[in-house]
Amino acid sequence: MTDALQALSREELAALGREYLLAGHLIDRAGMPFLLAEFGRDAMRDVAIEEWMSASPVYTKRMRRALGWEGDDVGTIFKGMQFDIGAPHQFMDFRYRVHDATHGEFSLAWCGALMDVEPIGEEFVVTMCHHIEDPTFDATASATNPRARMRPVHRPPRVPQGRVPHCNWTVEIDPKAEPLKEPEGARWLATSRAANVELRTEPETTPAGDLDYAGPMDPDLQLERFSHATLVRICDEVCLQGHLLARSFLRAVERRFGTDAALRIGARQLTGVAGVIAKRLGRLLGTTGGIHDVMRVLELHPSLRPRAYVNAVVGGDRVEIGPCDALDEGDELTWIALLLRGETTAIRSIAQAIDPHATCEPVRPHKQARAAWSVRIEKKGPGADDSDEVRVTSFSKGAGFVFQPKEGMSTAPAKKAE
Asked: Which is more confident, 105 or 406?
């Protein structure tokens, strides 16, 4: 059976790739509010630092292999950032400048993450833009060169108020600097099945577009430049980034507050991001409701991809999960393991985001499948309201963010601050 990604055009895959990058970024917006409510801002800060320091080096190295780029210079560091769910295109409007092999800078002409936390207060801005970014930016750079350092020229809180660009950072590689050690969490995550699953790029006989990113760093990178097969690979790698980040988050919570807390908060995280991203995918695909549209969004939803890691079978009116790496990590710290614990609310959240009259119930799985759910549309009553988890996640401006037509990011005007 042809995978749903294979059936999309290059233009559709590029648009979906941007959605997947933003989906990965919103994972934190779905989980952190519940962590904050139970354990406070310091716990949220510490979990976020460990989560990103553990995941970013692992998936940066995966993307490097997938797109065939080499090197350890500043331009190579920027390539990794261009494919990082922590820097989704446009929502985090990065502008990159390479001065030479060991020096460069970047700025954020507009930062959606800042727009999320600025209304909450300066303490939260400092937590994100100082306490979290300092160690995590260096961890991201060190995946390419452990002697690289990122340092702020200016950053929020914004002075004067409304300042653009929102921040400006230098990147320097000092051959005399002490190499940064690989974070312990990254070493742990690198041994996981998620980190080592093999994704294949289907060969193309007459490809249109680039097959890799082996050339110079393009500060105006657009996903449309890549071939169909390469875009399929990019989309699946970005979905896998989300699973790696979620696994890293669950482990960071578990280490501090125990397994029960990790699974409880992780289930709410999954439900919230599942519903918000389903709504975004529905808008992208032009869905109007009904079982066909619900199942199409389930087929493309990043929480159930890539198929090499998540053995999800979506068809008719059923979703089934078969044996797969996501269930064989040796613990319950994966979204798919949460589903098998009975967290049906995440599947229901996706379905009801497309049709509020959808219902979702566990059913007996076929053959070797481990779990299954049936989806039905019952046009009775007003339809379901958004869950608390979806409403909390929708606080992020990423929930309603609209991508703009492609243009050169190095020359485009900065977005107006909100």
From this structure: 105
